[in-house]
């Protein structure tokens, strides 16, 4: 019999894995069947993607499978989302590849482990809700920039190019090196890549229920093998895939190694937190459920540490696989655990077959992934919406593409914050009110001003210029704050300076209509009598003035 339903989210969010909640609600044969089907469906999608992402990241394909198995299981077992699927993600390709080039695979393992510890701490400190405050133009520009970088990273294998030295990381240098090697292109590789794209897209259009990614790779691999197409394969570059998970191994925790890996760990943490919570929010929107962001961060942290111990690399929530899980009818987190088990079964049983996969086919697959990451319709809508959103989007996209992912997030977030401050300041108004009347006569010694919006550092300059031009030196100013929602310390200082100015001229400032929370906040900022007076309404203010 199902137990009482445990809370999924809300203000007092518990650090409780969603798997516990799902089992507490009752779990029977029907739920098991749904999770089995969904887990198998997601595993079919994850198999080629995990290997392709690992290769594009500069490590062996087996490490992508290790990441999907260990990281994927822990994310589902311990996470705060019912439907989140964890594993290697395309968003990390650029960072992981750069980390491997600078610190090696051992440094990547340590950076992943340290990132996991940081993510877990963020969750334990309950900072998950804070990390989710990312402006939408930043998210769109960020993912579009990553899409461009991923596509550029696949050109070499798509065309079978032979470079005289290591492929550069920065996109401008990369494109220059690829252009210099243009005469080494291999027609067979181009044909395999194009054929992969055509088969996958045709399956998506004409047979959408079939696993297009896996079938596309399988068909092209079979044809390339049977026809002896001269292209590089997984086995020719990396050798045979192992049949088992490696024994767990703790990364090198020496001070020098930590110092070298720490910058990469910070970047992994920032990107992993944003990507995983964004994926969980997508699942919420599709399913009507609510995830626990802090629990999700703790699980992502444990999953990254676990993956690092078993030879994997960065784990995060993956939007495409998570969405597939929801559409496949998953009941809860058990589907994600089954997904990891099915990938493990492939490694145990069918690993040798993966060696025949052409690298050009995987490059074509990642080309599709990169193209889909560039949300063209969303970008066009944001550019049309306002110049501010367009600026944030374009700057984020350019910085991510041509500079650095972490810089792109930070600069985009800061620019988005400045845009928000400007908009909030523009919504703040200070306008003269109607003449004050008492006993049927107009009070010439009393003027009223209506203050609306948020009185904070962004709006003080505009408001201050208006207050400086208050004329006549009236006996009292009634400042109506009934439509003010917030006053920060800078806004409070501006009001205090007005009150002091009135006092020096022998007048008074009376604040009218403040709600109890607003009055308490203003008093806490130093706006207390005798500098000014609080009254509930105009009548009370006049009575106070005439007392």
UniProtKB/TrEMBL annotation:
This is SulP family inorganic anion transporter. The chain crosses the membrane at residues 36-57, 64-85, 91-124, 136-155, 185-203, 210-229, 261-285, 297-320, 340-369, 405-421. PROSITE patterns: STAS. The keyword Cell cycle does not apply. Residues 436-545 form the STAS domain. Pfam families: STAS, Sulfate_transp. Its main location: membrane. PANTHER family: SULFATE TRANSPORTER (PTHR11814). InterPro entries: SLC26A/SulP_dom (IPR011547), SLC26A/SulP_fam (IPR001902), STAS_dom (IPR002645), STAS_dom_sf (IPR036513). It is found in: Membrane. The keyword Cytoplasm does not apply.
